[in-house]
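>> Question from a student workshop board

For tomorrow's exercise we were told to take the sequence and the ligand below, predict the bound structure, and bring the output to class. My setup keeps failing. Could a helper post the expected result so I can at least see what it should look like? The ligand is S-adenosylmethionine.
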Amino acid sequence: MLARARSFERGAGDYERLRPEFPKQLFDDICASAGTRMHGRMLEVGAGTGRATLPLVRRGATIEVVEPSTDMVGVLAGRLEAAELSQQCDLRQAAFEDVDPGSTYDVVIAAQSFHWADPATRWSRLSSLLRAGGRAYLFWNGWRLASQMHDLEGVRALYLRRGHGLQHDVEDHRSDTGWAESEIGTDPNLELVDARSYEWPWRLDVDDYLGLLRTTSQYSVADAGFREPLLNSLRGLLGDQVTLQGRTRLLQIDTHDAPDRSPHRHS
Ligand SMILES: C[S@@+](CC[C@H](N)C(=O)[O-])C[C@H]1O[C@@H](n2cnc3c(N)ncnc32)[C@H](O)[C@@H]1O
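>> Workshop helper replied:
Here is what the output should look like for this input. Compare the format with yours to find the bug.
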């Protein structure tokens, strides 16, 4: 896990070039749901190159960002500066675990990052960082190979022979939030109040698709001695263009101690 989390120490340029954006509708929905909280104190966990940071800042938010990777922080700082938005972002090279436990926030954002936070403490930490009435938005992008365009049985067979445990994209395992949905209840102060999905078609050149896979932690830490032959064979199976079905999954989490909630919910 640690080695995979550290894989984000390098490759921020490829990450920024090859990873998909989040749908605009997702940010519109977050703004509508957050309401006046958007102008309150906001924390973003693991911002990477700013796939979520810039759209939120452009919608008027001021964000305190923690991101542990030097490489990611460098790219994000450059993007904010180029967009003249640096003043709306307090960017700190740090992990979620480093956030001052005495701070409280109106909104906490984690885009494709919450699974990297320490599983033993992530929910209690989230709970204590959200002020009464605060909201958290956790979201992930995922994709799967379009069944009508690609030989999925061929892909499965290739990974069985030469996958060395790497996951193929016949199923979308990245935006599957079942693990988080079942973990949220482990903190008595947190409640999952909304879960929704955004579907988007995506077509890209095969080399960009293979590059995209290399930006994911499991491929990036895999031994190139078996990863590259695997990806070469995959190229042969998929052809020049790859058609994916993309999906973004958004979870909205509230605190039980919201001022407008009945006090005996605590008992
Ligand atoms: C898949 S990237 C997501 C980046 C960006 N939020 C996005 O959606 O494109 C995961 C990010 O989480 C960061 N990360 C890993 N462990 C973390 C931790 N314990 N606390 C905060 N961020 C962490 C990584 O450095 C990486 O930038």
